[in-house]
Design a protein that fits this description.
By secondary structure, this protein is an alpha/beta fold. It has 21 helices and 18 strands. The radius of gyration is 26 Å and the shape is globular.
Length: 479
């Protein structure tokens, strides 16, 4: 017989859950306070599962969870929480809870199913499911404890219809993790659509997200659905959300609060049911303190927070990552010697997995033989010295440019190859966007080289100060 422990200070809920699960053949024990919990003799009572309320008048649910897992590690715990404490519920998962459920219980069938699945599943089956999905997505979990805990947490929250915020340095694999969350969710048969908020101008991003009506602006020759509409039943991934302008942040806040939006040029309200996953390579909480990001939007996005560790903090995973990256190049059997792998593990990889991927591609491309063995002598001098080839900030800028240019070329070629009607005005607008992004990138790089000296930057780029401010969208700044 299954032994179930229920910890909830609301007597009515305790009685209801007791009656529900006793009718299913469970042996149920109910306690209504932390004091009653402390009196349980765990040496005589072996529980298979527990349902613990996060908020008790005389105890903290997280403390009770820690005590329960210490006394009976095999007991599977479900945290009961209100929406306002979901962030704490995610912390409970990191402490060993198997799942959480929101109160009030709107659907009893879901509650029963959740407990039944919890009791049926084992640690090995869950781990196998995680590994199978990760392999399908192309996500390398590796051996690092922090990365393993991160993926387990992501897998557990994937089935919940809550917003997820992923933070991590450029190149750590934020989009791959977002795809993993989508794949582990109940929306996995619906679209996964991503957009980089920093690679598109404000006007184009607004149209991209919310759509536009025919004639809404110059070049809008036909109605276009936005991503919130297209991905309504699926997952929308907002990459580099910190790069969104103030105006876009306001519109994002509204759609997250109301689930409603309007196409550009329309007065009709549309509804979206998309699951949002946002990502940022900067710390959004620090951006809020610096007045660069709206505080209210940050709290809306920060329901479930996942932070991907940089590659330098998971060096033991580098051999497995290299093996995975080599498998992309099917016409070779190149390997790395143990000494070469040790050298690569000693390098800091400021560009993270993206830099490692580019490095492996270069090695395969430049190798004289398809079955070569790479030794330390074949590695770049900077990697052998264990020092970054570029400063991290400069590497991030170049990697951003690389990603934007690749995306721009693919989108433009796709439009050129279309056999049906082509919106030439939109193509020309993308060309202006390319000019803007490339211009800003050159200015930012040169500003860094001149330590922020704008006059010297303008001189090196052979442009006027007025032109420099224009490209940086500082048109109203005086000379």
């Amino acid at each position: 017989m299954t032994n179930l422990l229920i910890v909830d200070d609301e007597i009515e809920i305790g009685n209801f859950l007791s009656h529900l699960f006793k009718s299913k053949g469970f042996n149920v024990k109910v306690v209504n306070s932390g004091k009653e919990f402390s009196k349980i003799d765990f040496s005589r009572s072996n529980f298979h599962a527990a349902m613990i309320d996060l908020k008790l008048p005389d105890a903290d649910g997280l403390t009770l969870l820690k005590d329960l897992k210490k006394q009976q590690p095999a007991c599977k715990a479900v945290i009961m929480t209100g929406y306002s404490t979901i962030h704490t519920a995610v912390e409970a998962i990191k402490l060993g809870a198997s799942d959480y459920i929101e109160k009030p219980f709107d659907d009893i069938d879901i509650l029963e199913k959740q407990i039944d699945q919890l009791l049926i599943s084992t640690g090995s089956t869950t781990r196998q499911q995680i590994n199978d999905l990760a392999n399908k997505i192309g996500l390398i979990i590796g051996k690092t404890p922090g990365m393993n805990q991160l993926i387990e947490t992501a897998y557990k929250v994937a089935g919940k219809n809550v917003i997820v915020l992923i933070e991590g340095e450029t190149g750590t694999g934020k989009e791959v993790l977002a795809r993993f969350i989508h794949g582990a969710s109940q929306r996995n048969n619906e679209p996964f659509i991503g957009v980089n908020c920093g690679a598109i101008t404000e006007s184009l991003l607004e149209s991209e997200l919310f759509g536009h009506e025919k004639g809404a602006f110059t070049g809008a020759s036909h109605l276009r659905k936005g991503l919130f509409e297209i991905a309504s039943k699926g997952t929308l991934f907002l990459d580099e959300v910190a790069e969104a302008t103030h105006s876009i942040q306001v519109k994002l806040l509204r759609v997250l609060e109301t689930r409603e939006f309007m196409r550009v040029g329309s007065e009709n309200t549309l509804h979206t049911n998309t699951r949002l996953v946002a990502a940022s390579n900067v710390n959004l909480q620090e951006a809020v303190q610096q007045k660069k990001f709206r505080e209210d939007l940050f709290y809306r996005l920060n329901v479930v927070h996942l932070n991907i560790p940089p590659l330098r903090e998971r060096k033991e995973d580098i051999p497995q990552l290299i093996q995975h990256l080599l498998q992309r190049h099917t016409n070779n059997s190149i390997t790395f010697s143990d000494d070469a792998l040790k050298v690569l593990q000693g390098y800091r990889w400021p560009g993270n997995i993206r830099e490692l991927s580019n490095f492996v591609t270069r090695v395969v491309t430049l190798s004289d033989s398809a079955d070569a063995i790479i030794t330390p002598a074949n590695l770049p001098l900077a990697i052998n010295a264990g020092t970054p080839i570029k400063q991290t900030e400069q590497a991030d800028l170049e990697l951003h440019m690389e990603g934007f240019l690749q995306s721009w070329v693919e989108k433009t070629l796709s439009a050129f190859e279309q056999k049906e009607e082509i919106d030439l005005e939109e193509v020309l607008a993308q060309i202006k966007q390319l000019e803007s992004v490339v211009g800003k990138a050159f200015i930012k790089r040169t500003l860094k080289e001149t330590h922020g000296n704008r006059r010297e930057t303008a001189k090196r780029l052979q442009i006027t100060m007025r032109k420099l401010r224009y490209i940086l969208n500082e048109k109203n700044e005086s000379n």
